[in-house]
Amino acid sequence: MTNIGRMFSNVSPARQKLLIRLSILLNLCLLLYLSLSAGWNMTASSSAPSLPYSRDILNQYFGKVRQQVLDQASPSNSSEKSPPTQESLSDLKPPAHPLQSQIPPIQSPSSPTQLLLASKTFSISDSVECFNKPTNFSQGMRGKYWVLYNYIRAGKHFHCNQTITYTTHGDFTFLDNLEPLLDRWRGPISVAVYAPGSDLEDSIDAILYYRDCTNSSLVRDLATFHIYFDLSHIPGQVPRQDSLLHKRPNCQLPEGLTETVTYKKKLGLVYPVNVARNVARESAATHFVFPSDIELYPSPNMIPDFLEMIRRNDKKLTKSQPRVFVNSIFEIAANHSLPNTKTELIKLMKSNTVIPFHKNVCPQCHKIPHSKEWLEAAVKPGLDVLHVGKRIKPFQHWEPIYIGTNQEPSYDE
Q1: Between residues 373 and 94, which one has the greater pLDDT?
Q2: pTM of whole model > 0.70?
Q3: Using H for helix, E for strand and C for coil, what is the string for the chain?
């Protein structure tokens, strides 16, 4: 005590106050650390019993998963907050299946299968080039969600410069939109399906039903499905992806589509919309992507018209600044046939059969700059850029639907 007294006698009153405050701050930090540690331990003990079961399900159907990666997602190790690295996620891929590692060629469905090589450059226009990327099945964690990428793949595959991928999402109750959407789109679509718990079985049934039992082969040929679910709501069974397409579908309406209460709805789970948007968009194999909602149907011939516009490489397209290509969107009265041309659209707008999207819900969210000029502009064949603008006042609340690339920022998760 005497030594301490001598030590403080040599310190000015101002420094003494500073030391006392620093001591109080350090003690508060220590108490906070101890309380958080206790909270983590309580969380781990309350949820730990379900973890071995969940791990067994994933390991049983998708091969051995690196233990340390799953441990990082386990609440029992929540004090280690660092997420799995990209290198560790690469270990989650199962051994390649002989059929899985081969992709039907673009040129002819009857010729031998071949890989889409990622090393070759493909040209879209004089100023735009792209690379193919693999579309094999893979899996990994995304925050608190487990994602099965390319779980059920489309029958047709395309080079990165050949077309545009429509990227969308939903749960299995929205998949009835796929065939009418694809009838207008006529190109690849990447669909992220939220399937927690028992919703996975209903999701698989619905996917196979719409692939094999509809009036056309559009869903089978063009739709690739990705499945994701919460790590806290892992399904009881997760079938291997390479076993699903060997099942002979029963073309009776799946039981899950006749019931209105899903697992998600029963438990009141929040739909992770931006996770779905990112999974669908990032999994697209083409250079250009069109992120949109599954209930928004595109105009016919949009893919060839858009790519032709890009190939023309007009002066507005040669600038190097980041840009996306915004589309006008509208709502139509229920049970009314969709317009196929701008002329038909304008006619329906005059009768109020068609209105601007969310006009009665959030008009400022989809108020597009120069929308009036677009409606009044003469109808010409093909596509062209009407106006170059920015999302600034008075359009700061604008939520555009646009064609872009995966170079654009991801959605906030």
Answers
A1: 373
A2: yes
A3: CHHHHHHHHCCCHHHHHHHHHHHHHHHHHHHHHHHHHHHHHHHHHHHHHHHHHHHHHHHHHHCCCCHHHHHHHCHHHCCCCCCCCHHHHHHHCCCCCCCCCCECCCCCCCCCCECCCCCCEEEEECCEEEECCCCCCEEEEECCEEEEEEEECCCCCCCCCCCEEEEEEECHHHHHHHHHHHHHHCCCEEEEEECCCCHHHHHHHHHHHHHHCCCCCHHHHHEEEEEEEEHHHCCCCCCCHHHHCCCCCCCCCCHHHHCCCCHHHHHCCCCCHHHHHHHHHHCCCCCEEEECCCCCCCCCCHHHHHHHHHHHCCHHHCCCCCCCEEECCEEECCCCCCCCCHHHHHHHHHCCCEEECCCCCCHHHHCCCCHHHHHHCCCCCCCCCCCCCCCCCCCCCCCCEEEEECCCCCCCC
